Amino acid sequence: MSAIAYPINEAKAVERPQALRDPDWVRWSLTAVAVGFIVLFLCLPLGIVIIEAFSKGWQTYWSALTQPDAQAAMQLTLLTALVTVPLNTVFGVAAAWAITRFEFRGKSLLTTLIDLPFSVSPVISGLIFVLLFGAQGWFGEWLSAHDVKVLFAVPGILLATLFITFPFVARELIPLMQEMGSEEEEAALSLGASGWRTFFWVTLPNIKWALLYGVLLCNARAMGEFGAVSVVSGHIRGLTNTLPLHVEVSYNEYDFVGAFASASILAGLAIVTLILKSALEWRQARR
Amino acid sequence: MSILLSNISKKFGRFSALNNINLEIPEGELVALLGPSGCGKTTLLRIIAGLERPDQGRVLLNGEDKTEQHVSHRGIGFVFQHYALFRHMTVFDNVAFGLRVKPRRERPGEHEIVKKVHALLELVQLDWLHDRYPDQLSGGQRQRIALARALAVEPSVLLLDEPFGALDASVRKDLRQWLRNLHHELNVTSIFVTHDQEEAMEVASRVVVLNQGRIEQQGSPSDIYDHPANAFVSRFIGQTNVFTPEQQDDAWLATFGLQPGKTAHVRPHDIDIEKSSEQDAQAILKDWQHLGALIRVELVKNGSNDRFYAEMPNEHFKRLQLDKGDKVSLRIRQAHWF
Fold first, then answer.
1. What is the CB-side half-sphere exposure of residue B48 using CA atoms within 13 A?
2. SS3 content of chain B, % helix, strand, coil (to 5)
3. How far is it, in rounded angstroms, from Cα B130 to Cα B152?
């Protein structure tokens, strides 16, 4: 599951003058192409995931999900999200604050760097950590001397996910905080409020919907990330497999029901995310 | 509380916003910082508030050096140009904010806060709006709520950044008078920033004229109007006709009492005109405009295109029985030389 970074809720159909209206056949064929694409590439695969998952009945579906490896994968995925999402929420708010409230050298560079995890292939992101913490990597010797396992273990997965999901919160907040300006915060300070009080009483209420939106996208990606995690995890069943990795492993072992059952969990997560996302967009549009 | 600024300088990058500003404001005054946009007046206000740090110089409030003190401890009230009301709070909560964030020892009880906030809202005559949100208020109402919020913490200095800048002309007129009266009532030292000379003259008891980061002149409104210290002030405050030796020939200036060879600034109401015969006419009446109580007359020198203006009361103009194209003679009552 890949998260969508730009909300498209502003796209409202406007009543256009007759002269600018396209002929009916153009409108209908364009609509048909769009609908056909969605059916072919979104609805059909989603349907297949669910049909395949239940192809051998409820019982098999349930046992595929409750087998120890699947359970371990789910737990690791949850742990990853629980660790990385709060951390990246804090990092994201801090980065957005620094960029929108302070003037400093290299600010535009920092703004660009925040987008780096989006522009680099996830596999490369994973490789970075292999190069840093692998046996031949920069810190490899020190780590093995101190008996710390990062690569092919949980810390590696957390680090890779942290890197991949870093931009989501900051990117949601920066444009909003730029547009809001800092006058309200200055007003709070001039009234005698401390910095923390100003943040929690004035800034946070103003950015909360955008923040939640960013957290939601961050969470979706943290749970769904495959590429970077695949490179650093080592695919040890029951230990370092997250849910997306478990899908791949099961599929490669011809355990189709197991693969599709796990996939259905991820697909369900995607649908819940979409619903929450629309709800948040609706809230934001109303404010 | 008295305010003393000594040697304040501030640069933004290479742009020098303020240059060695020295200013003393006695307690209880209502002062206007007046100047064209970009002259540094808002920066100066923000430095007094502690929202901006001067590169050099000191800010003394009541004789105490507060240059290094954080804005939240200075005890100032700041009203922002766009009001900066907390948009997610009701009017009541906005005004109560300053009281609720006080340290526990000084914080009044909730009952007292309620009483005080309602008293403040009554002071700005908007108590009936206490449960509204800022985006449900008009500009003038927001302005008054912002003022009530700033007053809630009983500031010793009240600072207002372009307080009427974003309002309609008619609302602005009302609020000016209202602010003057409020200042009389509260007698708290207040400074407001404006680029509108009329506003400064009408509201303030003292006007400080700033230009390009320097103080050009300070004094009472009538001081500044009647005795401008330099050409900039004379031109910026009120209307002025400028007669330069380069543009006008000496003989022409001499005929109506101006000293040749020097630049003269003449207020339009200091020019008297009279219908005149061909020989001693010095100017031609080109056009005239009705400004309410006054008539503004557009004049041009004989055989030239340089326009200048004279103003006179309505009645007086009627008595002169002048028409477009008439020749007139001039008399200058007063001029400023620079």
1. 34
2. 30, 30, 40
3. 14
Q: What pTM, to 2 d.p., does this model score?
A: 0.81
Tell me which residue in B51, B77, B102 faces A186 most closely, judged by beta carbons.
B51
Under DSSP, is residue B265 helix (H, G, I), strand (E, B) or coil?
Answer: strand
Sequence-ordered strand ranges (E) for A231-277:
none
Would you call B71 an interface residue with chain A, using a CB distance cutoff of 8 Å? Answer: yes
Chain A environment of B85 (Cβ under 8 Å):
184, 187
> How far are the Cα atoms of A160, A265, B29, B334 from residue B181, in angstroms, in the given order?
64, 69, 13, 34
The pairing of beta strand B264-266 with beta strand B189-194: unpaired
Each residue of B159-184: pLDDT tens digit? Answer: 999 988 878 888 888 888 888 998 99
Asked if A133 contacts A186 with a C-beta cutoff of 8 angstroms, the reply is no
pLDDT for the residue numbered A283: 80
Q: For residue A49, give the nearest of A279, A247, A253 by alpha carbon.
A: A247
Q: For chain A, which residues lie within 8 Å of any Cβ of chain B, measuring from their own Cβ?
A: 183-184, 186-194, 197, 201-202, 205-206
Residue corresponding to tokens 């100066």: B44
Say yes or no for a CB contact (<8 Å) between A190 and B82: no
φ/ψ of B321, rounded to 5, equals 50, 55
**Pairing status of strand B76-79 against strand B264-266:** unpaired
Give the C-alpha separation, A166 to A84, whole Å: 9
Token pair of B19 as six digits: 């240059």
Q: Which of A262, A221, A261 is nearest to A244 (CA)?
A: A262
**CA gap A154, A149 in Å, rounded:** 9
pLDDT digits (tens, 9 = 90+) for A111-121: 889 989 989 99
Taking the CA of residue A193 and the nearest CA in chain B, the distance in Å comes to 5
Nearest-CB residue to B88 (from A187, A193, A206)? A206
C-alpha to C-alpha distance for B302 and B282, rounded to whole angstroms: 6
